[in-house]
Amino acid sequence: MGETNLETTPLHQMNPESRFSELVADYAKYRPSYPAAAIDKILEGFENRGQLVAADIGAGTGISSRLLAQ
What we know:
Blueprint: H1 16-20, H2 24-30, H3 36-43, H4 63-69
């Protein structure tokens, strides 16, 4: 997929990399994290959290992945 005009090209015809590349820094900067209580709720009931393996599919910027890893 070559160069596209962001204003006139339909979204389904755009290369996702060029469509989002310029927005990534702002998204990561302004996207809020999740409260610790939310992660605690997800992990509630697991006896040994240190041995827990999780797959965060579609992780985006990885906010929840980082929180789960901590």
